[in-house]
Records
---
Amino acid sequence: MSENKMRAIICEKYGSPEVLKLAQIEKPFPQKNEILIKIYSTAVTSSDTYIRRLNILPLFYRIMAGLFVGFGKPRNPILGMIVSGVIVETGKGVTRFKKGDEVFGTTVLNGIHTNLGTYADYKCLPEKSYITLKPNNMNFIESAAIVFGGSIAIWCFDKTGFPYDYNKSAKGIKVLVYGASGSVGTSLVQIASYFGAEVTAVCSSSNFELLKSLGASKFIDYKTDDFTLTGETWDYIFDAVGYKKSKEYVKNYKRALSSVGKFHSVDDGSPKNSEKQMMILKNITESGALTPVIDKIYSLDQIVMAHQYVDQGHKKGNVIINL
Ligand SMILES: NC(=O)c1ccc[n+]([C@@H]2O[C@H](COP(=O)([O-])OP(=O)(O)OC[C@H]3O[C@@H](n4cnc5c(N)ncnc54)[C@H](OP(=O)(O)O)[C@@H]3O)[C@@H](O)[C@H]2O)c1
């Protein structure tokens, strides 16, 4: 391959995983305030597969998502929003980063998915993107595995005022995470329990051992038990599954909230990222509050298999593409 070319996964129409094709295309070149990142690892997130199958979403969601990513076909034919890699070039106006910096982050700005494109060897991003130096205790694969779930978990905590501070003010607080075994769920469980909360994990019973190792102390299988009918109450209930997929009983969450309890669902608005959030993510990862949960690692040319797996909705933590 010539040095002006790169590998990328092209998605020219919405549909099943097979619409994703490996291709060789022109390598991008950074503009004045942009950085060029050589991508070492990215992730296949539940949001990636949501975008890819936009054509079969209910009309309302098709319109809402289409506004950002394109109607009929993706505006940017390269999907992917998670990046972990090295800065290999900087535009003349760049001051935040330098060549050689090892970074991680997301292409999503303010919850808006207009700038995808990480299923590729290289990606140009404005230096003001939600990118920061990667945690010093993580390699590229591990860093890619903490961005999606970790940043959404922090958004959930900030929305509800859950205290994730080093004074352990969360000690004794009761937290329930619905959908505890996914990317978002495993992050919520780890951070909440690290900062002192008593965490109940709701997921399939086959994942109880995993959640125990991540800090949860109580477990409920959503397939057989309704957590709103246990008689127990929680101070924070986080729905990490979303209204579209959750069982009916998530709608009855109020009867499982304590008198001062707070509820937040991943589907309550579009998760917002920020530079500050990426710094928090880096810091709590370096402190040991968050470790990567990696289910499977695929190569770029196995992208169809990776999407087929994520489509099933039962990955444990994260699915990584290693370039
Ligand atoms: N609103 C937004 O803008 C936005 C943005 C990002 C993500 N999200 C949503 O956030 C959710 C979590 O993302 P993720 O990447 O963490 O997902 P994920 O890794 O696929 O995890 C899914 C979790 O949901 C559980 N689950 C699957 N089907 C279920 C069902 N019918 N009832 C109850 N639990 C079920 C799984 O449990 P088991 O495997 O143990 O059965 C697992 O814990 C996704 O649904 C995604 O669409 C929304």
---
Amino acid sequence: MPTCPLCNGVTVASRESISVERVIKMYKKLLGIDVAGEFGELSFIDCNRCNDCDLIYFSPAVSGSEHFYEMLQTFNWYYMAEKNEYEFARNFVKPTDDVLEIGSGKGAFAKLINGRSYLGLEFSQEAQRLAAENGVKVFNESIQHHCITNAQTYDVVCSFQVLEHVADIRTFIKSAIVCLKDSGLLILSTPSSDSFSASVSNFILDMPPHHITRWSDASYKNLANIFNLELVELWHEPLQHIHREFYAQTMLTKWVMKLLRQKTSVWNDSITYRLISLACRLPSKLLSKFFLGCLFMPRGISATAIFRKNTEVWGIK
Ligand SMILES: [Zn+2]
């Protein structure tokens, strides 16, 4: 029986089993990379929605190896230097703040803020090298290790688009909170399962070995409850310009599937789905080019949650 990595719950609201062989084939077809070694002997992975905290988690929690991320880093689009959440989060950093960023990449966020001090934690050696070139201080250390000697050190601990890759969520969050001073802010940003991305079938970059969890507004609220944090803000980015066609294609396909009484699922490579998806391609292009953004601006993929630590009450339930 799988256990929810956030709340330890064992009941699921929904479960879908996905063939590992099909995921491997899709990676090969779309990105030209071989991820077979990441799954070992596994034949299926399950996508579960926790009944207690609403977190969507894959089990077993297959997280990508260093080799897997090296393959992804060869694509220019993988590390975006600008993120909407950076612009949002920088408003919460004061000039007197000591800032820690977990998974800092090449230090793009450090360049945007005006805090008293900044330290990034990053495993990628290439990212560390680029950060050093930019004059950004980065350590090759896990947050679990860093918190041992840096308790109550930072005013802000932030992590952008990292949590969804992490297998051991509870020690990751707990260690981040340990590093915070009293009333310090924890800033977490992930793709949101309350955005259109949750309706994308066969979204290989939003499942193992890349992402292990999917976060909704409800799961963020439950995170605050589990760790006795105050949820200060929950912000959704507006749809990014580069995602307009992706959004239109997803929503149009979903609408036609519903019209034809077909079920939308995490994985669907049926002929019906493929034909509908293909038929929606041109109308999606037109829709995104001429209407989207003029008529309304949908929610984008990423969400950012700001939590405040209250030392007197914090602790894991
Ligand atoms: Zn849960």
---
Amino acid sequence: MLIDITCFTCYENFSEDIEIYDGVHQEIIDCEVCCRPNKLFIEQKNGEVIQLNISDGNE
Ligand SMILES: [Zn+2]
């Protein structure tokens, strides 16, 4: 499933294809623009993203 991500470092928007996974998981995604890591906290339910938090992947 494609989700829209706003980079924590440069604030550019890009899309990332993530797996459909019911529940909560975290993923590190490198920004397509500045290549800095973003830590994603994703909560999905019934194939929908109900919560998405993006923080600094370097912390
Ligand atoms: Zn970026």
